[in-house]
Amino acid sequence: MYVTREGTEAVIVVGEHAHERERLAAAELRRYLYHLTGQAMEIGPYPDDGTDPVLAVGDRNSNAVIAALVEAGALPPEAPAPEGYVIRTATLAGPRPVIAVMGGSSLGTLYGAYRLLEEYGVRFLLSRDVLPPRVPADPDLAADYPDLAADDPDVAADDPDVAADRPNRSDSAGQPGAEAVRPAAFVVRDLDLTEQPAVARRGLLPWHDFRGGPSAYSLEDFQRYVNQLVKLRMNTLVLHCYQGGYPGEDINEPFACVARDEDGHARYDAWLDTSVDHQRWGLAASRADDLAFGAGDLLPFDVLGSDAARDVASQPDARDHAYAKAATMLRQVIAYARERGVEVVLGTDFDIVPEALRDELDPLDPAVLTGRVDDILDTYPDLSHVQLYFSEVNEVSTADGAKAYTIVRDHLAKRAPQVRLVTGSWFQEERFPELAAAVPGDVVFSTLMPHDMTVRPEWAQVAADREAWAVPWLEFGGGLSEPQLAVELMERRLPELRATGVHGVIGILWRERAADANVAYLARDLWQAPGTVVPAEGFYRDFAAATLAGTEAASADVADAGAAALSALEAAGVYGFAGGGMKTSEFHGWGFAGEPGASEYAERYARVRTEFEHLAALVPGGAEGNDELAYWLAFLRWLESYWTARAIVPGATTWADLHGSGFREAIVAYQDMVRDLPGLGGLVSAAGGRWYFGDPAWPRCVKDPLRSYQDTFVAGLPVAPPIDVVVRSTPDGAALTWKAYPGREDEVVGFHVDRAPEDGSEQFVRLTGEPVKDQAYDDEVSGHYRYRVTAVGTAGSESPPSCVESVQAGDADDTPPPRVLLLPARDQAYAGAAFPVSATVLGSRVASELSAHLRYRIIGERDWHKVAMCPNVRGRARTFVAAMPAWALTERGVEYVVVASDGRHETVAPSGVPRSVTVLPQPDPPVGVPQNVTVTVDDTRARVVTWEPASGPVAAYRIYRGATQGLPPGPDTYLTYVTADCQVFRDATALPHASYSYTVVAVTTHGRTSAVS
C-alpha cells in the first residue's frame, strides 16, 4: 500500500474532452474522498513531476493516463461493455501509483467511481450515504483537523458571514466533536476488480399511492432519488400513473391524460394526493395541527404534499394546471435522470378510464388506446419506454389485451419507433404464453411477481424469446408502518430469478429508510455472476457494521450482534412471520374491528427489541450516539404500542381506557422514527384524524371503526372532552394548547386547566378560576408538572379530563438539546443558482425560543460562512430555511451544517460528517427576465399576479412573496412554481388586508434562474 504523507496529495485526472458523466465521476470521487481523508484533491492534468498518487477516470479514448496503462499492458484494451468497469492499481512513470477507473462507457466509469468508494468503506443506500469514521492512517500526519473553525486571526473579524465559533464542537447533546478528528491519509489500495451487471435493466418502481411513498415528492426529491439509484448502479426508474384506479375507487394522477377536448383541455380531474385532499384507501384529511400529540411539529408546511400539488385548486384553470405542473416536474426529472444514465419509464392502466368518461369511452377502442399514448408522447418526448398495465381488477381477457398491445405497438412503430412498449400487471405470469403467441417480439413483458417473490416458470419461458422485466415486491403496500426486511428471502429467490434469464429486475416499494437493506441487497445481487449468491448473513453483518460503527472500525461483536438483530427483525416482520402485518395504519387506519393476533404481534416485537438493546450495549455510545440504533428502537417502540392499543381498545369501556391504551406512546415513537419524507407521510397516516374523535367528513371508504368507540363514550355526555393537548416549555413556565372535540364545539363555553407535580406527590389543582375562552393557556411556573384540560358546557356541566401531558417548565427545563430533522437532500447541483437548505427543529420548547443558522464553506477552504435561517413565508414555525449563495457553488463543491438552538442548548446537524454538494457546470443558456409583473385583487380578495413571458428556454416560473418591496427571492419567500406557458398566478393564501410584494423568476430545466423581475 502507498500512504500519502504530509506534503503529498493525490490528483484526479480526467480527460480534457471527457464525457460529462466522467467529469461527474471525478467530482464525486473528490467530494467523498475529502470526507474520508480531509484532503481536497485537485482535478487536473497528469503531474509531470513527483510521486503523488493519481486516480485516472475514463477510458483509453478520453484519458491519456488510461491509454498509457493500456499501452503498457497494465489495463485491458476495453472494460466490459456497456456498463462494466475495471478498477486496477498500477504504476506509471516509475514509482507513481495510479488507481485507474476504466469504464466500458461513460456510465460504466461513473459506476466504477462509486464502486471504488465502496472499497474505501462508503456504503450507498436508497435513503442516504454511510461513510466510515475518518481514522488517521499515519501518526506523522498533521494534528487537529480544523473542521468548523473560523477563529483564526487571519479570518476577517468584521465579516458578518464568517462564523466566530466552532459549531461542531462536543456539545450538550453528547455528540463527538469533529475538531478532535485528525485528517486521514489517502491509502492507495492494491485493487483489481473487473465487474459488469448480471441483469441489464436494474431499477426501482416507487409507487404513487400512500403518502409514505413518492406521491409527496417534489422535483428535488426525485433528483435525490435518481442520484441514489446511480450510486447503487441502477439504471431505471419506473413510475405508474393511475387513470381510473379500479371500479369503485376513482384515482386519477396527472402525469398523463386519457382524453382532452378539441381545445386541448383535460376532460376530467386529476390530482396528486396531499394530506388534506384526494385521499385514497380510507385516509382522513389532516393538516399539521390535526395530528395528535404534537406530531404536526415535524411537518414543514401545514399541508404535506408535493410542490407540484401546491396552489393547484385555487388557480383560474385548476384542472389543466394540475396536469401542467405535474408534467413540468416529470419532464425535468426525465432530463435529469437521462444525463446520469437512468431511463424513466412511465406506465398506466390501459383497460380502464376515469369514472367521468366510462359512459362514453371504451378503453380498448383503438382511437382511445392510441390517443392516450399520443398524449404521453407529446408530453414527454424524451421517454424511451411506455408501460401499459392490465389494471388491478383486470377484467379484460388476455386475447383482448394482446389486441390492445399490438395496436399500441404498431402505432409506436409509426409514430415513435424509438419508444418501446412494456406490458404490466399484477401477478399475471399465467398470461405470458398466450400473450407471447400474439404480441410482436419487440414488446417487453413485465408483471408484478407474487408477494413472496415466488419465481414462476413462465419467466424462463418468455425470457428465452423476448425481453422480460420481473418486478419483485420489496415492500407490501398494506403494511407500511411495519418492518419489511426481506434479505433472507431474497437470498433464496433472486438467484432463481436471475437464472431464468430475465433482462430486467425492478423492485416495487414505497418507503426509503425502512427499505434500505432490501434495496441495497437487490442492487448488489443484480451484479452477481451467474450461479453465485450474496449470503444474507454476510450482507447483514456488513450492513450492521457500516451503519452502526463504520465499516473500518466495526468490531466483530457489533457486526455479529447487528446481523442477528436484523435477522430477528426480518423473522418478526411481514416477510418472515406467517400472517403478520399488512394491516397497519396507512391502509386500515387503526382497525379496531378486531385483530386476534394483536397481542402476539406486540410480544414478538418486544422480543426483537431485546436483540437491539443487546446490540446497543456493544456499540460505542449506544442508542444515544448512533442514529441507526435510535431509528430501529423507535420503530420497535411504535410497533409494540400500536399492536398493544389494537388489542386493548376493543375491550375499552370508558373514556379513560382510551387514554391508557398506548395511543400516545405509539405516536411519540413514530415521531422519533421519522428520518425522511416517506416517514413524514407515514406519520400523517398514523397520527392524523383518528385520535379520540372522528370527522364526519371522512370519505366513505374509511375502514377504521374507532369513531364508533369514541361516540359511544361521549354520546351521553352533556359536553365532550378536549383533544390534542400539547404542552411546551417556555423560559417562564409552560404553554398549553388544545382543541374542542370536533363536531361538538357549539356546546362548549370555556375550558379549565389543572396541574399536578410530575412525581405524583400531590393531586391536580385547578389553575383557572373561570373557564377560559381560548384554546390555549400560559402558566408561569418552574418545575416538572402534569397538565390536563376539561371543557365546560353551556349548562355548567364539565367533561371528563383530556389526556395528561407532562413538561419541564421554566427554570426546571433540563430536557436534551433540540433534535434537528434534516430530510435527505440532493447532493448534486448546477453552478449559478443558490442551494436551499431546510431543517426542522424539534423539542419540548415553544417555537418562539427556537432559532437556526446555516454554516457552509467551499470544500478545501478554511473559513466557514454563516447565514441566518427563518421559516418560509407559508411554512411552520419550527422549520427553518436558508440558501447557500450562488457564488459559493464552485466546481470544488461545498459543505454545510445547520446549527440549531432552543435558547438553552445548541445542536449541530448532521452530528458527524457535514453534508456536501457536488457542483456541475450549468448546461442551460441564460433566460430573460419576466416583464411587466402586475398584481391585482379579485372579488374574493385573492392577489392575482400576472406577467409577460421571459425569453429563452424557460421550464417554469417560480413565485415569491414577501412583506417588503423588492424582496430578494429565496427559500424563505418561495411560494410555488407555475408552468412555462402560464403567466398568471392566483395567491389565495394571502391575508385579505395585508400588504405584499411579489417576485417572478424564470427557471430552466437545470435550475438556471433569470434575474429578478
In terms of topology, how is this protein built?
Blueprint: E1 2-3, E2 11-14, H1 20-37, E3 42-43, E4 54-58, H2 64-71, E5 85-92, E6 96-103, H3 106-119, E7 123-124, E8 129-130, E9 187-188, E10 192-195, E11 201-206, H4 219-231, E12 236-241, H5 318-339, E13 343-349, H6 366-379, E14 385-389, H7 398-415, E15 420-424, H8 432-438, E16 445-448, H9 458-463, E17 468-471, H10 487-499, E18 504-509, H11 516-525, H12 536-548, H13 556-572, H14 585-588, H15 598-618, H16 627-648, H17 655-659, H18 663-673, H19 677-687, H20 706-714, E19 723-730, E20 733-739, E21 748-757, E22 765-766, E23 776-780, E24 783-793, E25 805-809, E26 819-821, E27 828-830, E28 835-842, E29 851-858, E30 865-868, E31 879-884, E32 894-901, E33 906-909, E34 915-920, E35 931-937, E36 943-948, E37 956-962, E38 974-979, E39 984-987, E40 997-1003
Parallel strand pairs: 2-3, 2-4, 4-6, 11-12, 11-18, 12-13, 13-14, 14-15, 16-17, 17-18, 27-34
Antiparallel strand pairs: 1-9, 5-6, 5-10, 7-8, 19-20, 20-23, 21-22, 21-24, 24-25, 26-28, 28-31, 29-30, 29-32, 32-33, 32-34, 35-36, 36-39, 37-38, 37-40
